[in-house]
Structure formats: structure tokens, C-alpha cells
């Protein structure tokens, strides 16, 4: 639920019951974890390297805008206004978490430099996403069912023997 209106910062939490409420506040720990979640999304084949880079850049642009105390991030910010939330304080735990996340992020981004244009795990990510679709799909329309069966057969074949070149990857995606 990361949105432009929140300056690409993650909400602290989402309450589902009794009604859905999104906590439009964030901390250095939340920010660091959201950056690593983008790397995780690449690892699982849900996004490509360019999406990781774009998402990371947006967060860093926002970090440049956040008010700080002697260079340190405050512990809580309003994601819509970027104002530090009262009481303003610096948390050594959250600052340390962010520092550790940034070290890990650096290594992950450096590894992406040599990554293929289409991540090798892309088809596994598609299979995961398709599995969710299949779980939520209720049988009814025979044409849809046949189309899903055909897609699943083709996807299983690609996952069983992943493409070994850019040309074969494009064929598989087509």
C-alpha cells in the first residue's frame, strides 16, 4: 500500500478489523525494510531490476526531504506531510536498523548490476502469481477455464526448462 501521496514511504501498519485503517506514519526501520522488500520482490521474480532501481530512487528522493536532527532521522514521520511526529526523538534502535538495511541494500543493488535484463526467476514469480489467480478463480466460464489451463501448461513447461538466452526468454514471454 505504498503510494505517491505517502511520498513512497511504507505505512507503519494496516488494521483490518473492525474496519480497514492505514497508519500513515513510518519509521527508519519501516523505510529500510521496504527498501529490502523491493530486493526480495526481485529475488522471487515479481519485479525486474529496473523496478527495484526506480522504487529505491523514489525513496531516496524522499529521504532527502525529511527533516532531521543533527543529521539523524527522527523516529516517526507523517507519510503524507513528511513532518516528524511528536514527541520528536531519535531512536538508536531504529537508526541502527536503517543503517543495517542500507548496508544490505547496497550489496543487493551491486549484485543487480550484473543481473540479466529479465531475472531468471521471473517465470517462478509468474507461476506464484498464477497460483493465486487459480486459487481465487471460481469455475464457471468454460472459455476462461480452458484459457487458464492452456496458460498453466505453457508456464509449467517454461518453469521446468527456463530459457537460456534473451531470444528464448522473449519467445517464452510471448
What this model shows, in words?
There is one protein chain. With 174 residues, this protein is mainly alpha-helical. Helices cover 55% and strands 7% of the residues. The strands form three sheets. The chain has a two-stranded antiparallel ribbon. Strands 3-6 form a two-stranded antiparallel ribbon. Helix 1 packs parallel to helix 3.
Helix content: 55-70%
Number of strands: 6
N-to-C order of helices and strands: EEEHHEEEHHHH
The profile of the biggest β sheet is: 2 strands, antiparallel
Q: Would you tell me the structural class of the helices and strands?
A: mainly alpha
Q: What Rg, in angstroms, do the CA atoms define?
A: 20 Å
Shape from CA axes? globular
Please state the average pLDDT score: 93
**What order do the strands of the largest sheet run in, or round the barrel if closed?**
1-2
Please count the helical segments. Answer: 6
Q: Which blocks of ≥5 consecutive residues have pLDDT under 50?
A: none
Strand content: 5-15%
Note the gap between the termini. Answer: 30 Å
Task: Quickly describe the structure.
The chain is mainly alpha-helical. It is built from 6 helices and 6 strands; from the N terminus they run E-E-E-H-H-E-E-E-H-H-H-H. The two termini are 30 Å apart.
List the helices and strands and how they pair.
Blueprint: E1 14-15, E2 21-22, E3 25-26, H1 28-43, H2 49-65, E4 68-69, E5 72-73, E6 77-78, H3 92-112, H4 122-136, H5 142-160, H6 166-173
Describe this protein with a few key phrases.
174 residues, mainly alpha, two-stranded antiparallel sheet, two-stranded antiparallel ribbon, 6 helices, 6 strands, globular
Amino acid at each position: 500500500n505504498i503510494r505517491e501521496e505517502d511520498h513512497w514511504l511504507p505505512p507503519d501498519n494496516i488494521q483490518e478489523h473492525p474496519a480497514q485503517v492505514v497508519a500513515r506514519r513510518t519509521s527508519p526501520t519501516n523505510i529500510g525494510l521496504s527498501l529490502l522488500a523491493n530486493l526480495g520482490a526481485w529475488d522471487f521474480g515479481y519485479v525486474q531490476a529496473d523496478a527495484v532501481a526506480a522504487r529505491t530512487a523514489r525513496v531516496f528522493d524522499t529521504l532527502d526531504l525529511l527533516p532531521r536532527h543533527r543529521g539523524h532521522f527522527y523516529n516517526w514521520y507523517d507519510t503524507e506531510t513528511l513532518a516528524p511526529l511528536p514527541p520528536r526523538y531519535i531512536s538508536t534502535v531504529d537508526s541502527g536498523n536503517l543503517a543495517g538495511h542500507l548496508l544490505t541494500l547496497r550489496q543487493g543493488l551491486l549484485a543487480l548490476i550484473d543481473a540479466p535484463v529479465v531475472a531468471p526467476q521471473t517465470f517462478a514469480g509468474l507461476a506464484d502469481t498464477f497460483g493465486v489467480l487459480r486459487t481465487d478463480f471460481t469455475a464457471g466460464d468454460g472459455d476462461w477455464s480452458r484459457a487458464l489451463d492452456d496458460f498453466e501448461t505453457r508456464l509449467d513447461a517454461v518453469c521446468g526448462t527456463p530459457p537460456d538466452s534473451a531470444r528464448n526468454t522473449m519467445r517464452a514471454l510471448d
